[in-house]
Backbone:
């Protein structure tokens, strides 16, 4: 099976309808009007590029997060104890 839009070959049962819909479904950033093919990617873009919330930074590596609980979970990979 081949996509009529981009001519990519697709295996049977590989989600042809979903693949084709990506060519036509667009999610626009409300701030800069950049377009994305999925809501999740558009939301991630908004949060990382336009959201003014505080970052939580790891003291041991370049990891950063806007969610303190994500940093707590990340800290466990360093085995250094609690975040204060």
Residues:
């Amino acid at each position: 099976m081949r996509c009529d839009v981009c001519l990519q070959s697709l295996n049977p049962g590989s989600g042809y309808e979903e693949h084709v819909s990506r060519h036509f479904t667009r999610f626009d950033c409300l701030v800069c009007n950049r377009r994305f093919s999925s809501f999740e990617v558009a939301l991630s873009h908004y949060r990382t590029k336009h959201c003014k919330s505080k970052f939580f930074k790891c003291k041991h590596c370049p990891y950063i997060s806007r969610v303190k609980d994500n940093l707590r979970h990340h800290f466990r990979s360093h085995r250094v104890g609690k975040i204060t």
Notes: The chain has two domains: 1-51, 53-84. The two ends are 55 Å apart (CA to CA). Helices lie at 16-24, 39-49, 68-75. The first strand starts at residue 27 and ends at 28.
